[in-house]
Design a protein that fits this description.
The chain is α+β, with helices and mostly antiparallel strands and 138 residues long. Helices cover 28% and strands 27% of the residues. Strand 1 and strand 2 form a beta hairpin.
């Protein structure tokens, strides 16, 4: 993936922190999903007082894309931090990784974890979910 595209995704993900609804944890997360067609879908985390209805930024972006007919995904960029201050990587939770397994090729789908445009790492879904269970297992 080109450096310019990565930087654009990081910038978009950081902007999503402003929309995060995190009154309970204070941990704000932003994400941007890139489709194979080159479209971006953004997401933020949305907490809930009952906790289990909370939705992560990654799933928000993925579900938005799916609800608009997109199913082929290339990469996702994720940023997050307490009170929106980015100090370390915010890797996807297990539920988000499982959703990615449902819709993404674990060998090619890239997960960009970032703190800034100059401080990021890129992983494949297989890196983060080496023995994942997905549709191909059924």
């Amino acid at each position: 993936m080109q450096q310019k595209m990565i930087e654009q995704m990081i910038e978009l993900a950081i902007r999503q922190l402003d929309f995060s609804y995190a009154p309970y944890s204070g941990f704000r997360v932003g994400a941007v999903l890139l489709t194979e067609e080159g479209d971006f879908y953004t997401g933020c985390n949305i907490e809930n007082a009952a906790f289990t209805p909370t939705n992560c930024a990654e799933r928000t972006a993925i579900f938005k894309a799916i609800s608009e007919g997109k199913r082929n995904f290339r990469a996702i960029c994720i940023v997050g931090g307490k009170d929106g201050v980015l100090t370390e990587y915010a890797p996807p939770c297990g539920v988000c990784r499982q959703v990615m397994m449902e819709f993404c090729d674990s060998d090619t789908f890239q997960i960009i974890l970032a703190v800034s445009k100059g401080h990021y790492d890129i992983f494949t879904l297989r890196d983060l979910m080496p023995q994942g269970f997905g549709p191909s297992n059924l």
